[in-house]
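B., you asked whether I could sanity-check this one before it goes into the benchmark set. Here's the sequence:
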Amino acid sequence: MEEMVKDLYLEIGSEEIPAGYIAPALEAMAAQMARFLDEHRIGHGEPFTAGTPRRLALGVPSVAPHQKAQTTEIVGPPKQVAFGADGKPTKAAEGFAKTQGVRVEDLGIKTTPKGEYICVLREETGSPTKELLEKMLPDFVARIPFPKSMRWGSLSVAFARPAYSIVALLGDETLDFEYGNIRSGDKSRGHRFMSPELLTVKDYASHRENLKKHYVVINREERMQLIRDGIRETAAKIGGFIMEDEELLDEVAHLVEYPHPLLGEFEEKYLKLPQELLITVMKEHQRYFAVVDEKGELLRYFVTVANTVPKDPTLVAAGNARVIRARLEDARFYYEEDQKVRLEQRMEQLKGVVFHAKLGTSWEKMERFSALAKWLSAHVALSAGETETLMRAAFLCKADLASGMVGEFPELQGIMGRSYAILQGETPETAAAIMEHYQPVRAGGPVPEGTCGALLSIADKMDTITGCFGVGLIPSGTADPFALRRQTLGIIRIVLEKSLKISLHGLIEQALPLLASKLTEPTEKVRANVLDFFQARLLHFLTSQEGYPADVVEASLAVGIDDLLETARRTKALAAFRSRPDFESLAAAFKRVVNIVKEPETSPVDAALFKSDAESGLAGAVGECEGVVAASLTASDYDAALGAMAQLKPAIDAFFDSVLVMDKDDNVRRNRLALLTRIGALFGRVADFRKMQTA
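And here's what the prediction gave me:
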């Protein structure tokens, strides 16, 4: 009788794990377990995860109790070597059989394209899943990735925070293993304060419901919905509305196990401060949700989410109010003091503010990216007025770094620069560019709305990227202390979303001389490394975020990435072209062309050397196609260019059906190779079809 599949459940209990650690860890746990089960031929359902600040949980339904049996074929020497002319086994056959632990009589014969070989078929029975899991789980726990891990006591093992329990179940069986001083079992815990007793776990479904009785909502989505509904209802009590913030909601969901919303308030006088300032102080420092009226104007209320049900909610609310009042009072003081000094007067202070020891001061950085911004303004043909706005914003955009407010609240850089710029009479466009030049500040965050802000952001980011590569500060693995990946992706997104025609090579060439006195790496190396870095980020963006197949993106990027906007358009058209019924045959024809032309033939095609109608027909079709493709690419119409190339298919097929390319006559052969070289160059203007997978 076939054994029933079982559900796997793993839960690691620990001290409070930082909110930002939880989601990546859970994602990695699911991926690692799926990979292990697949590699060990263990059938399973789709893994799922759950987690709170004090527990990370992984479930896998329908796990097979045993590995699948496997037949392995081991190929030995050729048959003619293994057996003599008389059919008797040679020492080669006997040695192979002995090595494999079988008799010579048990050897089989395998027919391959290269001939017949002796072989052995080895049957491997599957090991019990329970045994395999017990052996691997200590290493599995150790490999859960965290930005920083810690050890506790005298133990050599590590985790995000000290762990205290491990639940490990396969069906109704407990998986037995140790991690440090923790032995796995079936015991979990409820809420740390409201229900800390031990809980026996039978399976995830019943455990999930039991945890709720003990003040733990283990499912993240459920917890987020409770918070979302709770904060909205709390704000509605005073006629307000929650300022929706999914980023904050996600963070708070990873800070609590049993969310309980509480309403708080602060004095009316603080509403005179800039709205972004108030929101930032509430969000970044206290994790409070701002409350607004029906017009979106900020009210003097906030909602905080506690991790316990307080005995006296008013007392807790009052405590939260005292905390935020102190922060807002600091903000009010700095806001008033900062206005006594104009932004341009603060610029001199930037000469003493070090951006990086190897890259100089913030003043030097401002001078560099201002020059880049000037070049960009000419490159995209800004008007004289727009250029003036851009350069004014470039000069002032780092001034708020020297302000008391940003010194106290660094996350307000740019935001306060805009506020102070407006207060001192700068144009709205200049003020907006000062704030927007930091955008996007996070993955998926908004890009600058204005063109000046977009160009200034590109200039600032490119100076940082080129400078860091120029002094050897290159990201490695998961380490990226200067956020170069994010900044590179930011440039890509700005260019694509704002439809900017900018030469990436030209921008790098402008940046390098400005950094000449700082560079410790050869210029050529820096240039190549920066371009490679951009290509890798663009590949990642177009595949993971835009959803294009990797081989399509690689084929498109092989043409070049100097114009990021055109690269994206080309990729989109190529992905659509791939779905055409004639794609496979056209790609095959192109690959045949480039496989024959090992080295491009540089001599021009001579019609006088044609010996067949197929040659002249293909030459004529190519000439006509070249004109259409050139015009289409000028208009960025890649669909039309690819469509024109597809029309070459019959002529290419006719050519190969009737012509031997490698003719004995050297002149004829070179002429035919020259024609194929033209075809390869024509197709190569759009994609390297060799990189695209075909059936």
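One thing to flag: Residues 71-124 form one domain. Otherwise nothing jumped out at me.
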